[in-house]
Each structure stands twice: as C-alpha cells, then as structure tokens.
Amino acid sequence: MTMGVTDQESFMKEVRLKSSVVAGYFFFKDGHTLRSDWRSPEFWISSIRKEDSGCYWCEVTTASHSVSKQSHRSYIQVQIEHQRIPVSGMFLETQPQGDQAVEGKMPVLVCSVAEGTGDTTFPWHREDTKESLGQKSQRSQRAELEIPVIREGHAGGYYCTADNGYGIIQSEEVNVSMRIPVSHPFLTFSTSGAQAFTGDVVELHCEDKRASPPILYRFYHETVTLGSTSVPFGGRASFNLSLTTGRSGNYACKADNGLGAQRHGKDMSNISFHKHPPKIRLVNGAHHCNGRVEVEKEGRWGTVCDDGWDMKDAAVVRRDLGRGAAKHTPVGMLYLPVAEEDQSVFIQVALCNGTEEALAGCEQVETFDCGHDEDTGAVCEGG
After folding, report:
1. pLDDT along the chain (383 residues), means of 10
2. ∠333-336-342 over CA atoms, to 5°?
C-alpha cells in the first residue's frame, strides 16, 4: 500500500518548535482529534487502510498556551495495490466436448485456470511424443488452441500448463480418441453362378474399411430401399436379395456412422436375371449370340422348325438368354454340324408376339412334319 503526502517539508517545519517552549502536540483528521501528546511530535498509523484517506494537520502549543501554531492541511490518499494471485485449478478440455475428435475437422484444445491474475502463459503438449503444439500469453484465465485438420495419427494424450510468474502448474492428461467418417463404402455381390435366376438369392455386401463403428448400412435397388443393417463393431454388412421379375438394374448401398452418410452405387445389370433356368440355347455359332435354336424338354435337347419363325420369335429368344437385341433369323442348316438324325424337332410353330420373357411363354404348335433341313437359327447383338 502507498500513501502520498503533499508539502511534507513545510508540514514538519510548522510542527517542530523548540522543545523548551512546546507544551503539547495535537493531531487531527477531517476535524476530529486523533491524539494529544505532550511529549512526541510524531503520530504513526500502524496499519493504514483505504478508510484512512483524508485531510490531516497538526497543532502545537507552548506551556503557557500563549502561543499556538497550526500546520498546513495535507490530504492523504491511500491507494490499495491489487494482490497478485498465482494460477491454480488447471483444466484442459476439447471442443466439441467429449474427448473425441473427427478426422478432417478442426478440434480446439481449451486450457483454463480457476484462479490467477496478470499475464498468463499457456503452452500445449502431446504426452506420447513430448511435442510442443504452441503457446499463448494473455491476460486471461482461458486460452484456446486450434489444431488444423486433424488426422488418425493425432489420437493420444494431451496436456497444457500455465504460468503467471508464480510457478508452472500442469493439467491432467486428456486422452483424445479419433472418429473417422465414412468416405467410400464399396458394394459387391455374390451369386452361386455366372447367371442368376428367379428364386435364386444374391448376397449384397457393403463395406467401409476405415470408418469408425457403429455403422448403419442401407441397401437400394434404383431408388427403392431394400433394407438396412447396423454393424456395431465395424466390418461389412450383408443383405440377401431373393430374385424376382424386375430385379435387374442399378444397386447401391449407403453407410452412415453419425458423421455424415455416403452412398456408393454399382451397376448390376450385367447379371442375367431369368424367370427360370433357360431351356433354350444357340449352338454351333461363331459366338454366344449366334447359332441354331434348340430347346430342352424332359432333359433332352431338340430343334425348332422355321415355319412362321420371324424377328418377334428371335426377340423372345434373345430376352430368354439375356442377350442383346435380335438381328437375323438364319436357317439352322448354316450351323455345322447339323443336328443328329435321332435328335427331335420339338416346336413346329412358335406364335410369339415379341413381348414374352421366354420362348416357353409363347403359344406353340408341336412338330408333326418338320425335318432338320427346316431347323431355324437366330443372331443377336453382343457377339
């Protein structure tokens, strides 16, 4: 604490007279007598406080009281100096709260003290690597440090310290874990063979190898949701799809672990979907879309007569086989070797309108006068 007194020298001259004639000393503050003393010309205030501010003066008298002299009045202003408080109550937290950071985001490490005055220096550190992340000095009990774009390798322990000139204190270690958003879920599928037929089950698989669990996977056919599966510990999810008419098309899956959903699509139209296992084939052609038309009945393969055979019939054949558009209807004799003599001709006339899914769905006239010299063929796109 400090006390300021004006005109001190003149004050002392006024109060000091020769001791042989001075009989008393009187001290006053704001009109009130502080002390009357016949011996000492000094008055001490032992523990000065702010309330001691005021106007002071003194007076001396001679023994005969014939002479009395009063000093000049002096105003004393007591100023209280603020007490410096050491830092204490150290605390480190993360923003957003929860001690979890999201890869690719910008987390904030907040260092604070419960008490402390003056300028305080806040440094931040990693516990495992002893790396210094940075520091700030400011007249505050709280400071923030932003970490630009955090990655998976930044997971670990962190702490901060504080010092305002009275000694360094350290926070407890905060273990920051890392959550990884979904990014590129990958869709795959499996079937029992190269082709899938009505009644078969196709297994769809969706997986994001890096995303933090739990992950919710959803499966789609075009824009229709097929179903969803939650995976609590990571890994991939599966969905069993029973094939029915109209199941060919685009399939997709979506992954979501609460940090933003991501969708991945895969075109599955390259799988041949059939209403039934095909009972028709093209044989002896130059490629799989070219050949003599043969159908199967009761485990035996026979040919088809070219009576009335046209492009509508060929269109149904290509659809039944899952091939490209029909192009020609050549005669079956072009595809050598020709059919064996003991091989039957099963269909004389196929009355297709061109919209049927399979040749078995067309009205038919079973053979009664056709030979293998009238066998028919078909050519479609995709060779």
Report:
1. 44 45 83 82 84 91 77 86 83 81 84 93 91 92 88 88 93 89 84 61 87 92 88 86 72 89 64 64 90 91 94 90 87 93 92 88 86 94 68
2. 75
